Amino acid sequence: MTTFAHEHWSSRFAFLMAAIGSAVGLGNIWRFPFIAGENGGAAFVIIYMMTTLGIALPILMAEILIGRMGGQSPIGSMVRLARQHKKARLWAVIGWGGTIGAFVVLSYYSVIGGWALKYTTLAVSNAFAGMDGEGSGALFADFTASPLTLFFWHTAFMGINIVIVIGGLHKGIERAVTTLMPLLFLLLLGMVVYAAQTPGFDQALGFLFKADFSKVTAMTFLTAVGQGFFSVSVALGAMMTYGAYLDQSVSIPRSAFIIALADTGVALLAGLAIFPLVFTYALAPGAGPGLVFVTVPIAFGQMDNGVLVGTAFFVLLSVAAITSAISLLEPAVSWAEEKFSGGRRTATLVVGGACWLLGLASVLSFNDWSEFYPLASLGVLDGKTVFDIFDFTVTSWVQPTVGILMALFAGWVLSREDVMAALGVTRAGELWFRLWLFAIRIVCPLAILLVFASAVWPDFV
Ligand code: PFF
């Protein structure tokens, strides 16, 4: 089998920035705060940290490892490794499932990324000034009700993504992430420092860190696992692709740990940036998906430096979304590069263009198709728009399935010696290695099966 020679990261720093960039996204700044808000705050935060460390992190290591051992796109790597180990080609489903899953996620992720871009322009032009809850709700409703406006911003977001990915690993992705990620950290720290001086900061600290376990149910665990998978970017082939570009000399366990830690740190800091504003202006912490786009702008409209703080916040959100979107596009692009001889530019334009087209279904889900529930006639997923179905299917089904398979493949199919060598396990690290092996062979697959069981039989938990 011919192998395609992909570029490699020029440094460990570049890889880490790209991988952290992938992990840190809308999942941290938009989704985590409202999920934590809806699930009672601190108790959820603690459970989230446990499941991320115990389940998402071991799989993240497995995914990067498989990528590095395969050296190709997720599909190419899986076909190759399955063949090398004389295993059924069926294992390639990990590559296909991840790549298609990432493609579908990107199609709607780009629509929400477009919202972040649009809200940046609103913040700059002081559009939130003096707004109350009703005004903010109406602003958001008017915006999402217009297919043309959403179309425009979705196109802008996907366009930026395509331009970066066309540039290739060094001149495109690395250049983008090594400038954008430091900017993201700076903006986030600035936001937290600002929020720390508002009267609602103490209340926010209590909300995020003082746990009330009485609200915890089995569902809390399941929500935490799902959120962790999405947030750490596992099981969609993104990290596998980034692993394929990684030199042997870089430690995978250490990198995976840094990535998961940075991702969780950013989610917490995002909470510390957002909730003080929510409490200071007596807004609702459990406001759901509208938290960032409806609730928080009210605070920007009322504070003294609203234009500055609001702009910083939405630039932060846009940057986080773009560096994640890059990693969602790369798995399919790297596959197309291997498969067809058209070169990177054509591969990116075709894959990105197709994804943009698919995104139009999500654009319409917020207006013309908002009451179109395509699967209702089959008796499933009634009340869910195309956007909802994409999100639900990938995060609840594709990601957990691919996650289990990745864990099993790394744990049971790859030879223990190869894996130890690839991870550079030393004598001192042997205990950690055994723990990891136990996690991916048994704990992670079982834990994810539990997620499934509860999805299929809600009464199970
Ligand atoms: N981790 C990203 C976020 O939190 O927004 C989303 C994501 C990117 C998920 C890449 C999966 C992935 F492969």
Automatic annotation (TrEMBL):
Transmembrane domains' residue ranges: 12-30, 42-67, 88-109, 150-169, 176-196, 216-245, 257-284, 307-329, 349-366, 397-414, 435-457
Assigned keywords, A-Z: Membrane, Symport, Transmembrane, Transmembrane helix, Transport
Keyword set includes Membrane: yes
UniProt-annotated location(s): Membrane
Pfam families assigned: SNF
Predominant location: membrane
Membrane topology, as annotated: Multi-pass membrane protein
GO cellular component term, pick one: membrane
Top-level division of the source organism's lineage: Bacteria
GO-annotated molecular function: symporter activity
Entry's family note: Belongs to the sodium:neurotransmitter symporter (SNF) (TC 2.A.22) family.
Name of the protein in its database record: Transporter
UniProt lineage: Bacteria, Pseudomonadati, Pseudomonadota, Alphaproteobacteria, Hyphomicrobiales
